[in-house]
């Protein structure tokens, strides 16, 4: 998946956001066909590798695409919809696993890939990317397609769009590969490149080592280890259901509240829930309490709060980078996310042994969540209701959010 993220970054900036989404349906289709027809373990491995590649290929380009076609007031809500459907897919997969064979589920996934292709065949490319490529005619048509039913934009032209009128659109020239690489590295060396990159990379480390994905992917093992008398498979469904409900709520929250506030509440809630779960896990294992329902409730609430930490960083990632490197930088951040996810998963048993069991592991995850609160408070800029060009200008003069220098650079709509 990190490898696919880098490839997606190059393709997103050079072939277009929409073209990458269309291309991703092919490996998705092939991978699930391999799994559905598998006759040995190696075919399952091969199919999983291909579907993993397809998944990494589609996530960030879709978020970049949405960030460029939507107005600032609804951008966060629209991007949160992807998290809603991700969690809905997770839940339906758990439910299908109760009464369908894995081959039938794989064939259904093949059908989903065909539906995905049909959905992205009849929509236009991002007008921002088209302008960057010098295709002003196509950019105008794309803009008109997306703003057709917005009354306030009835007489507005592409150049009058508040999303574009102050943005520096750098038209690409047919440079040599060496010159293009050098120019791209130069963009990353600017404050508008390296500052958001470091901030978002650190946030991805915090996201993965806060433990949510580790628990989710080892849910049965985790709940059995705590010592509750609940069916661990049913507990997994409870967690997935909570995530779907919160993902839907997140769409409304992203329209009403600032990104920073939502992220800080998310981190605080995760910290409290994980610490309480750790305390009761220790008491249950020592025989000091019979309230073995408490860790389950705390972990379900923990996943409720985690909805913010998993969805908002992906939204912010597609907002903070300048246009010339937005696709590549966003996908590089996703590659870092996949590497951190791998590292977090592989660290579970070493942490389990080093920290004295599940209670120690939960204390560690709670500590990382608390660090996340401090980091967001100090470094993450606010992007809610901000035009993309305004967010880009912020990094020219600011590193810490509460630095006095240049605070006026991020006005609210």
UniProtKB/TrEMBL annotation:
GO molecular-function terms, A-Z: transmembrane transporter activity
SUPFAM superfamilies: MFS general substrate transporter (SSF103473)
Domain Major facilitator superfamily (MFS) profile residues, every copy: 1-384
Residue spans crossing the bilayer: 20-38, 45-66, 104-123, 197-223, 261-281, 293-316, 328-349, 361-380
Subcellular localization(s) per the UniProt record: Cell membrane
Topology of this chain in the membrane: Multi-pass membrane protein
PROSITE patterns: MFS
Keywords in alphabetical order: Cell membrane, Membrane, Sugar transport, Transmembrane, Transmembrane helix, Transport
PANTHER family linked: MAJOR FACILITATOR SUPERFAMILY (MFS) PROFILE DOMAIN-CONTAINING PROTEIN, PTHR48021
Protein name per the record: Major facilitator superfamily (MFS) profile domain-containing protein
């Amino acid at each position: 998946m990190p490898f696919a993220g880098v490839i997606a970054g190059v393709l997103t900036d050079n072939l277009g956001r929409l073209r990458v989404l269309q291309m991703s349906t092919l490996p998705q289709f092939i991978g699930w066909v391999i799994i559905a027809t598998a006759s040995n373990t190696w075919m399952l491995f091969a199919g999983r590798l291909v579907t993993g590649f397809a998944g990494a290929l589609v996530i960030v380009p879709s978020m970049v695409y949405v960030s460029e076609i939507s107005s600032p007031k609804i951008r966060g809500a629209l991007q949160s919809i992807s998290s809603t459907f991700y969690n809905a897919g997770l839940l339906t997969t758990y439910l299908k696993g109760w009464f369908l064979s894995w081959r039938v589920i794989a064939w259904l996934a093949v059908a989903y890939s065909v539906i995905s292709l049909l959905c992205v065949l009849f929509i236009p490319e991002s007008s921002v990317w088209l302008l960057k490529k010098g295709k002003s005619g196509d950019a105008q048509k794309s803009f008109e397609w997306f703003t057709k039913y917005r009354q306030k934009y009835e007489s507005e032209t592409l150049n009058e769009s508040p999303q574009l009128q102050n943005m520096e659109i750098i038209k690409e020239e047919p440079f040599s590969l060496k010159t293009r690489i050098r120019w791209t590295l130069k963009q990353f060396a600017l404050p508008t490149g390296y500052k958001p990159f470091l901030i978002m990379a650190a946030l991805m480390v915090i996201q993965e080592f806060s433990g949510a994905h580790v628990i989710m992917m080892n849910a049965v093992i985790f709940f059995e280890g705590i010592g509750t008398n609940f069916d661990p498979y049913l507990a997994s469904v409870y967690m997935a259901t909570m995530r779907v409900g919160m993902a839907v709520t997140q769409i409304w929250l992203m329209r009403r509240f600032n990104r920073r506030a939502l992220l800080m509440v998310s981190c605080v809630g995760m910290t409290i829930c994980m610490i309480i779960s750790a305390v009761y896990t220790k008491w249950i294992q020592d025989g000091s309490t019979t309230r073995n329902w408490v860790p389950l409730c705390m972990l379900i609430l923990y996943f409720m709060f985690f909805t913010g930490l998993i969805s908002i960083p992906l939204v912010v990632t597609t907002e903070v980078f300048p246009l010339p490197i937005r696709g590549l930088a966003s996908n590089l951040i996703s590659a870092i996310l996949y590497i951190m996810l791998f590292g977090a998963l592989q660290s579970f048993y070493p942490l389990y042994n080093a920290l004295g069991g599940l209670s120690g592991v939960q204390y560690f995850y709670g500590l990382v969540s608390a660090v996340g609160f401090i980091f967001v408070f100090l470094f993450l800029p606010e992007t809610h209701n901000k035009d993309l060009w305004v967010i880009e200008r912020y990094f020219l003069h600011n590193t810490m959010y509460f630095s006095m220098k240049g605070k006026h650079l991020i006005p609210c709509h």
